[in-house]
Write a sequence for this structure.
């Protein structure tokens, strides 16, 4: 018989679901008492939060039909595990308020497989910069390709990008939902929800059918923090939900890493503060692997190979095009004189690329490179064809993470980069 | 006692076309009443008072009899004061004060003042075209309209200052001066030179391309970067309108009451405010009037703060931009206005409109802003450019003065000449107007240039429509360089200037 949840745990979980709205009223959104409340036993929980619904809640609890609950779970294709059965994610036992039941889709075997592999959680802003999306995609893909389970929360922005990256990297992403596992939230991520349901595992501590509640977002964040050895914050403003995840991670003794952002960017103020306070600097999947598995362990991981192994990318919405690496040989190869890993661009192209990377506008690029306006646009058109830059908004360009990396110009650009004729 | 009947011809303006209207006057014994029938609007009905006073003040008789005037055809709506003169002439003829045969082969138009002098009317040029088409020998107009109406050959235009002179002329006692020669028309003051604008080389190059190929352009940049200044200089980059084009421009301006009485020598520049209504932008109203896009015909329509225009107004621009005409349907009648203008839109990089370094907008914010720009409209925009903040310009310094309008225009004119000789007889004048079929024929790319385009497709940068846009623009880049063959560099530049795919997909 496959692992399953015991009667008592199912009852406690159902009771939490039953009292969901009351919990919202009592706890609000960002309440630090969350853990201590969820850790209460059933009778105490009722006494603490049920208020006038106490009698009703007691009746609900007393009349709970575990078998019926299992039957309806089976009908919806959702499985349930509790700490007393097999397959329950061991990492979650480190929580003070262990979720009585984890509901999941995708199969308990797959869940066991994913939680036994090294796990990294990638989280960040729901409305991130284009840069953060690129980084999250890259992290998701790189980590997944290296055999790391990528956990995220299916929210908009960084979460979704990390999931998409993991899917493209060939890994089964693990999505943690704030509502029932069968409830796609937010709705705009419906397609992603069903893709992870098919190719990865979705888990939640709330019974199926329940919509997310105010308190269940931070509650979901504590599960994401607990599941992973490393939590990577890609971009977070001050006082954002992402920082709550990082906070949980610190309390649980997990590694916290953050991706550096512009120091002037309001959007990255929270993640930059984490770095200042000692979080690991995550610049690439390799950095994350170093944190997760120890320096050097990334020998298993080669970005180029990983990209190739990923095969055709499965990104459905087009946050980025396949990089030249994924496409195989690129026109860039013809231009590069140095070893394959560090190709050098034709003088002016490289200069233009460096300036795009530095956040310069087209006007400045044309002026500084001496190319002039038309030829600057031509160079950008060429770089876009190579997959090294992409449109950012209507008229500007942004450096993509795909393709050959170019080191900062001051460090290694002995070649004078002037306009070619 | 028999009634005395007289009929004279005049014209009603509909759209920018004129329709012949016959004014019949019937004078018979009865109570002295003056009735006007035949679908007149309030201004036409009020003409009775102006005609009566003008006649009396000019020392002429106003018959104290029952007077009925009919404007035929009776199903055409007559609006405005331009029927005054014809009504007065009909009354004069019916009351025997001027010989009736003197009006047999002439048409008249003009507004009367109470003192009997004539005021200029709108649409005199269109009426002159109508008079020639209808086979009239002469067209009698207020003297201020004579220059404009005189642009039409094949009909004698007689400019008359007041009613007394009209009567003298019809009696053969006075001759009108020939209409002033159109070359006399003074040129409107120049809009300023391109080298007044510092820096912004990217935008200037984009303007040059837009001028050379007639491409619609979107300028993206912070407020104060000089978007409006640059857009105002685009008409100056375009070649001077030829006679045919100038007449088209004058005709529109005449109908809209914007004509200065002569041939328009400058291409129009229209910059409506973003609060404009749909009918204000594309034309319409109960009696359809030309909209801004028509007023910009053969010139430039500049829409600053493109994202702030109402969605309906922007979507209504799509068809005119596609076909170069606006079709307005009112009841049974469909009216067509010319609307071949180069569109220049301007918007900010993002909703906060701050420079990139201080911008706090997220991708979501920017996507939402871009969505306001109406995808069907963006679909008609061939190129974008980016402007720097004024602050960045300070760093450039003053000493680098850019190219002058005249110098850029020489290249533009040469490029237009190449297009004209290539496209003669196809119905298109510029690269931007090339149909997909023409694009395939005249913007062929081979070798390395072709490889670039295929790459664009393979990487999902280009779509089918985007492909044609890039080809048309690459054609213009090559034309400006004086080349028949489109090179890889031209394709790359066109790719670089095309609108970000994100925005079009949004």
């Amino acid at each position: 018989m496959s692992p399953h949840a015991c009667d008592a745990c199912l009852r406690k979980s159902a009771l939490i679901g039953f009292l969901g709205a009351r919990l919202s009223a009592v706890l609000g959104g960002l309440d630090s008492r969350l853990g201590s409340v969820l850790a209460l036993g059933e009778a105490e929980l009722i006494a603490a939060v049920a208020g006038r619904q106490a009698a009703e809640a007691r009746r609900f609890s007393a009349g709970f039909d575990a078998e019926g609950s299992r039957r309806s779970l089976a009908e919806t294709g959702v499985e349930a595990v509790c700490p007393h059965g097999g397959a329950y994610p061991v990492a979650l036992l480190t929580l003070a308020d262990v979720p009585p039941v984890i509901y999941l889709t995708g199969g308990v075997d797959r869940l066991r497989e994913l939680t036994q592999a090294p796990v990294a959680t990638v989280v960040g802003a729901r409305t991130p910069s284009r840069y953060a999306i690129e980084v999250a995609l890259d992290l998701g893909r790189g980590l997944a390709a290296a055999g790391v389970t990528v956990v995220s929360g299916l929210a908009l922005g960084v979460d979704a990008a990390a999931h998409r990256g993991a899917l493209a990297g060939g890994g089964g992403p693990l999505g943690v939902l704030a509502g029932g596992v069968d409830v796609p939230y937010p709705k705009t991520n419906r397609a992603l929800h069903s893709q992870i349901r098919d190719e990865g595992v979705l888990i939640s501590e709330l019974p199926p059918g329940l919509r997310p509640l105010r308190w269940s977002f931070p509650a979901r964040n504590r599960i994401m923090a607990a599941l992973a050895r490393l939590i990577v914050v890609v971009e977070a403003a001050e006082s954002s939900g992402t920082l709550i995840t990082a906070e949980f991670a610190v309390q649980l003794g997990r590694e916290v890493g953050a991706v550096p952002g512009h120091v002037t960017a309001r959007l990255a103020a929270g993640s930059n503060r984490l770095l200042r306070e000692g979080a690991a600097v995550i610049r690439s999947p390799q950095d994350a692997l170093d944190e997760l598995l120890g320096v050097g362990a990334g020998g298993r991981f080669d970005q180029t190979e990983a990209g190739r192994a990923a095969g055709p990318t499965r990104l459905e919405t087009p946050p980025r095009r396949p990089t030249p690496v994924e496409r195989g040989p690129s026109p860039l190869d013809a231009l590069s004189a140095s070893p394959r890993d560090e190709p050098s661009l034709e003088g002016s192209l490289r200069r233009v690329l460096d300036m795009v990377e530095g956040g310069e506008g087209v006007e400045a690029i044309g002026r500084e490179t001496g190319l002039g306006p038309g030829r600057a646009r031509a160079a950008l058109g060429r770089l876009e064809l190579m997959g090294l830059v992409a449109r950012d908004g209507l008229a500007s360009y942004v450096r993509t993470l795909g393709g050959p990396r170019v080191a900062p110009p001051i460090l290694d650009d002995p070649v004078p980069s002037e306009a070619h004729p | 006692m028999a009634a005395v009947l007289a009929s004279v011809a005049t014209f009603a303006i509909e759209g920018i076309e004129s329709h012949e209207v016959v004014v019949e006057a019937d004078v018979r014994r009865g109570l002295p009443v003056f009735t006007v029938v035949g679908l007149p609007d309030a201004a036409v009905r009020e003409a009775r008072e102006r005609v009566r006073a003008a006649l009396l003040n000019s020392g002429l008789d106003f018959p104290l009899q029952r007077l009925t005037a009919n404007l035929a055809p009776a199903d055409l709506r007559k609006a405005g004061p331009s029927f005054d003169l014809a009504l007065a002439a009909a009354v004069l003829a019916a009351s025997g004060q001027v010989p009736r045969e003197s009006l047999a082969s002439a048409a008249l138009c003009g507004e009367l003042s109470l003192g009997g002098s004539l005021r200029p009317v709108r649409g005199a040029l269109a009426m002159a075209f109508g008079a020639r088409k209808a086979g009239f020998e002469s067209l009698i107009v207020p003297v201020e309209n004579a220059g404009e109406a005189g642009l039409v050959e094949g009909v004698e235009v007689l400019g008359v200052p007041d009613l007394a002179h009209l009567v003298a002329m019809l009696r053969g006692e006075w001759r009108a001066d020939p209409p002033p020669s159109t070359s006399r028309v003074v040129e409107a003051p120049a809009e300023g030179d391109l080298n007044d604008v510092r820096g912004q080389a990217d935008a200037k190059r984009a303007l040059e391309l837009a001028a050379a190929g007639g491409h619609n352009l979107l300028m993206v940049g912070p407020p104060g970067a000089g978007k409006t200044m640059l857009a105002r200089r685009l008409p100056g980059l375009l070649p001077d309108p030829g006679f045919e084009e100038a007449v088209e421009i004058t005709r529109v301006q005449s109908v809209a009451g914007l004509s200065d009485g002569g041939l328009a020598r400058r291409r129009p520049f229209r910059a409506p405010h973003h609060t404009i209504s749909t009918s204000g932008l594309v034309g319409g109203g109960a009696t359809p009037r030309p909209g801004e896009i028509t007023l910009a015909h053969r010139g430039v329509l500049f829409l600053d703060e493109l994202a702030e225009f109402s969605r309906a107004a922007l979507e209504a621009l799509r068809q005119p931009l596609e076909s170069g005409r606006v079709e307005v349907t009112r009841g049974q009648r469909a009216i067509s206005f010319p609307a071949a203008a180069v569109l220049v839109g301007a918007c900010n990089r993002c909703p906060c409109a701050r420079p990139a370094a201080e911008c706090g907008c997220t991708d979501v914010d920017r996507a939402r802003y871009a969505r306001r720009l109406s995808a069907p409209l963006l679909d008609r925009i061939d190129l974008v450019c980016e402007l720097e903040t004024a602050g960045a310009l300070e760093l450039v310094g003053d000493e680098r003065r850019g190219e002058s309008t005249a110098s850029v225009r020489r290249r533009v004119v040469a490029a237009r000449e190449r297009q004209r000789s290539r496209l003669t007889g196809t119905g298109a004048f510029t690269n931007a107007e090339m149909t997909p079929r023409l694009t395939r024929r005249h913007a062929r790319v081979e070798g390395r240039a072709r490889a670039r385009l295929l790459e664009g497709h393979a990487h999902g940068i280009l779509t089918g429509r985007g492909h044609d846009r890039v080809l048309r623009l690459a054609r213009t880049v090559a034309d400006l360089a004086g080349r028949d063959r489109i090179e890889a560099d031209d394709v790359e530049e066109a790719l670089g200037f095309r609108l970000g795919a994100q925005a079009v997909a949004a």
